[in-house]
Amino acid sequence: MKRFFRSAFGIAVLGCLVLAGWAVWSAGVFDGPVARQLRTASVYAAPGVAIDRPAAERVIGNRRLVVGFLAPGADLSDACDSLGGAVDGTLAVMLSRDGDDFEKYGCSRLPGSDDENFGKAFVAETMIGNGIDAFADRPVDALKVLVVNYDLLVHSGAIPDGGRTVSPSLPRYLVAAAAVVAVVLGSLALYLAARRTARTALARQERRDAEADARTELSAAAAVLAQEIIDLDKRYAREKSASKFGRGYRSLVSDYALLLPDLGRETPELRARVEKLLTRARKLGAQVP
Fold first, then answer.
1. What does the pLDDT look like over 87-135, one tens digit per residue?
2. DSSP-derived secondary structure letter, 99
3. In a domain, 83, yes or no
4. Residue whose C-alpha is closest to residue 225's, from 247, 187, 177, 258
5. Residue 166 has pLDDT above 70, yes or no
């Protein structure tokens, strides 16, 4: 496994997986129900909470304000923490019914709320819920009070002016899906390319091995031919050079001398020449003195 991830292919696959994971995570696939709803809407209503959501959405409009109506007794702080980056750039307000009042919790996701604008964020979180308790049984009217408070905070400079830009979830999931598909197709392409390269390298190696084997066989055949000529030379020294054997031996040696410069390479023609000379040498050796 370590060897795989140290290779170029493994590093590429790992990089694609990281990008795909980031795309899936940023698309909100791990969001909780509150964050999932508020990522593309201004109002969340928990199951069992009666509210006219279309009317509530119209009251808030495109303000940088998101409101969650949670079930009585819900942990509002945890709900704010679960929003993550789903409501970046907004002022979030979590509400739950507490008898005849609202339990309120504000959490600012406005720019600089943790740094230079920390004081303004604290003021906005504290004041945004003023006056809504009188409308605990009328959530849409409570939203109207929240909107009035929001606009006052904008005029005071505690909240930056401007509308909220909502990125629809479908394109984000499409981007995530495209990233996953790119990982799969990219990995497949790299795998196929690696296999093709491996096959090419293996074929080249097999060809080189075959050529080396052929050269070895040729060298062995040439060595046998040389030994045959050496053995025939002893007989040639005893017989007359004008004899049939002598003439055949001289012709064989002459052809062998012409063969020597070509022994550095291996071709089918050269192998045939060696075999032919070896046959002639053996025939000469078989002649009766």
1. 888 999 999 998 889 999 999 888 877 777 888 888 999 999 999 998 9
2. T
3. yes
4. 258
5. no
In 3D space, the residue among 131, 79, 130, 135 whose CA is nearest the CA of residue 107 turns out to be 79
Residue 52 lies in a domain: yes
Q: Is the dihedral of CA 252, 254, 255, 260 positive or negative?
A: positive
| Bridge pairing between strands 101-108 and 91-98 | antiparallel
- Asked, for residue 251, whether it belongs to a domain, the answer is no
Residue 266 confidence (pLDDT) above 90: no
Residue 7, pLDDT score: 66
d(CA 29, CA 54): 25
Token pair of 26, please?
A: 């940023």
3 state SS of 157: coil
For residue 72, give its domain range.
41-166
Q: Which CATH number covers residue 103?
A: 3.10.310
- How many domains does one find in the chain? 1
